Amino acid sequence: MRSRRLLGQAWCVTDERQTETPPERDTDRDSLMTLLGGRTSAVDASLPPVAFGVGWFAFGESIAAGGAAAVVVGAVIAGWRLRKGDRPLAVLVSLLAVMFGAIIALRTGHAADFFLVRLVTNAASALAWLVSMAVRWPLLGLVVGTVLGQGRRWRRDPALLRAYTRASWVWVGQYVVRLVVFIPLWAANAVVALSAAQLLLTWPLVAVCVAVSWWVLRRALPGDHPGLRHPVVP
Questions:
Q1: What are the CA-CA distances from residue 14 to residues 22, 23, 149, 201, 234 (Å)?
Q2: Which of 22, 95, 179, 192 gives 20 to 30 Å between its CA and that of 9?
Q3: pLDDT tens per residue, range 80-135
Q4: Residue 113 is inside which H or E element, if any?
Q5: Structural domain of residue 74, as residue ranges?
Q6: 232 in a structural domain
Q7: Which of 46, 55, 53 is nearest to 74 (CA)?
Q8: How many domains does the chain have?
Q9: Rounded distance, CA 120 to CA 36, Å?
Q10: What backbone torsions phi and psi does residue 161 show, to the nearest 5 degrees?
Q11: What angle do CA 227, 146, 88 make, to 5 degrees?
Q12: Helix (H) or strand (E) holding 152
C-alpha cells in the first residue's frame, strides 16, 4: 500500500514537470512593433500623401487642392493622435512636414515636390542609422533600450550590441528601398504613382522590416541569453 502511495506521488511530480512550459525568452514575448509603435506611425504617415494624390487628380491636377486635402487629413490625424495621448511635439512635427511639403509644391509648381520632404527624411534616416552603427551606438538599440528603460545597460552587453547592430542593417535597407523607388518617380513627376508607392512602402514595408529585424535579433542572440529586457552586463 505504501509503495503504491509513493509511486503515485512520484507520478504526480513527474506529471507536473512534464506539463510545465519553459518560460519564454523575452525575445519571444516582446513585439518589436509594439515597442516601436510602428503600426500607428506608419499608417499615419501614409494617409496625407495619399490624400494629396487623390486631391491633385480629382481636381484637375491642382496642387492647391492636393495640398489642402493633405493638410486636412494631416490635421485630422493630429487631432486623433493628441486625443489618444501621443506626444504633442511628435504630432506637431508630423503635421508641419505635411504642410511644408504642400508649400514646397506650391512654390515650385511641381506636384511631385510634395514628396521631397519624404525623400530627404528617408535619405537622412538611412545616413543616421549607418553612422550610429559605425560609432557602435545602433539606433535600434537606442530606441528599444529607451522604451524599456534600460539606459545604457544594453550597450554594455556584447551580445545585445552585436544583435542590435545586425538588425539595424534591415532598417537601413528599408530607407534605401524607398529611395530607389521614390527618386525615379519624383524625377518623372509621377504624382499618382508616388502616392501609391507611399502607401505600399509605409505600413507594409515597416511590417516586413520589423519581422525581418526581429528574426535577425533572435538569431544573433545566444541561446542562453535572457532576452532584450535583461542585458547581461559584466
A1: 15, 18, 40, 52, 37
A2: 22
A3: 888 888 788 878 888 999 999 999 999 999 999 999 999 999 999 999 999 999 99
A4: none
A5: 34-220
A6: no
A7: 46
A8: 1
A9: 22
A10: -60, -45
A11: 140
A12: none
